[in-house]
Amino acid sequence: MRGKIVFYWLIGIVIAAIVMVAAFYFDESVRNFMAQHQNRATHNFMRKVSRFGDWPEHFALGLALAGFAWWRGNRKWTRIFLSMLIALSIAGVLGHGIKIATGRARPSVRAEEVWNRFSTKYQAFPSGHVAASTAFFGVLFFANLRAGLACLSIPILIGFSRMHVNAHYLSDVVFAAILGILCAILVAHFLLQPIRNQQSKVDIGGHTRR
User: CA 86, CA 207: separation in Å to the nearest integer?
Assistant: First the structure.
């Protein structure tokens, strides 16, 4: 069993590496495509998506959902929503640290602008919006496949919006998505396991397992 897990992780790492290489290769092509295919309505929409797709909005949503689930006495969903918040926080901290360490300028940054390495205002790699959103909804995906798939379009749309407003390159968004997935896997493994164990006991007790 452990050998299979190691094998799957190695396959995942290889796929992620290939995807990242491709993303870096197409950075400029995607940026030029975005610049050439813009109109006022789409740009305004993407600006709003980018504005409301940041981590504070996700955190507020998760906190509200966790509070509602707790008020309803649903311990399972309270745990899931709190796990989503934890994954969001981990992705945010890691993403911030990587931004400071890499110091990659945003596509929109001009050479004459003042550069502050310890501020993420002008730094692009990775996208904090996408990392937070992917980690947040990634935990939901692992907890409830149907609900997670329904929300999958949210981090994807946020990623497109960040490239559309010239805040990030394609590779910034792709790496952020990978980082968010890893954070979601980590949190789901340690915090959602009791839910799976409890569900297994219920299935065994109800004779639904085969």
Answer: 34
**For 80-92, what is each residue's pLDDT tens digit?**
999 999 999 999 9
Query: Given the structure tokens 């955190």, which residue do they identify?
Result: 59
3-class secondary-structure state, position 123: strand
Question: Burial, 27: exposed, middle or buried (Cβ in 10 Å; 0-12, 13-18, 19+)?
Answer: middle
How far apart are the two ends of the chain, measured CA to CA in Å?
20
pLDDT in tens, 141-156: 998 889 889 998 999 9
The overall longest dimension of the chain from CA atoms, in Å, is: 69
Task: Identify the CATH assignment for 2-205 out of 1.20.144, 1.10.3470, 2.40.50, 1.10.357.
Answer: 1.20.144
Instruction: Classify 136 as helix, strand or coil.
Output: helix
β-bridge partners, 105: 123
Q: Any idea which residue has 């792709």 for tokens?
A: 174
Q: pTM, whole model, 2 decimals?
A: 0.83
Distance separating alpha carbons of residues 161 and 127, to the nearest angstrom: 11
Tell me the pLDDT band of 57, cut-offs 50, 70 and 90: very high
Question: Where are the chain's structural domains?
Answer: 2-205
